[in-house]
Amino acid sequence: MSIDYNMNVGAARLAVKNKRAEQPRILLVGGFNDLFLEALTELKFDFALYKGSKAAKSAEFDVVVLSSDRADQTFDYIQKFKAVPIVFKGTKGFYDYNPVKEFGNSFIYKQDSPWYMLQAVIRAAETYKFPYDWKTLRAEVADTAKYLNK
To answer: Which of 80, 89, 114, 146 has a CA-to-CA distance to 67 between 20 and 30 Å?
Structure first.
């Protein structure tokens, strides 16, 4: 079965201009298992694979998922896309978001497996449904970007 994993970037920009989308727009950076990509497709997530294209660079994303082999580049991608990161555990400077404590600046997947990544994506999508929590999380990400930029 062949699946086109590239989203319509123009549609993503239009959604941003018109209203807040029901689900976050997700950018995937690095290498991902086909099972993970199929699960995102089946769950109807709005996502794109980052291939350095101008279209992806100019689109707006709410979440950036970095595969474990790209963890050391997390700061670069949150600076570039101003998006909430989903990263592998142990990524320096990033802490799992806890909505009760209103603390954290990312969503962490604890094992390098498609199921743990998917769990983190679903947590991000559920948090996105709560504008106050999402705004708090985005502010934490912005503070992290400022701190790591020093």
So the answer is: 146
Secondary structure of the chain: what % helix, strand, coil (to 5)? 45, 15, 35
Does pTM surpass 0.85? no
How many domains, the chain? 1
Give kind and range of the element (H or E) at residue 125.
helix 114-128
- The strand pair at 46-49 and 63-66 is best described as unpaired
Range of the domain at 73: 9-148
CATH of the domain at 38: 3.40.50.2000
Residue 12 is inside which H or E element, if any?
helix 9-18
Unique residue bearing structure tokens 């790209």: 70
Q: Helices in 63-110 by DSSP H: which ranges?
A: 74-81
* Sheet containing strand 46-49, strands side by side: 46-49, 25-29, 63-66, 84-88, 107-109
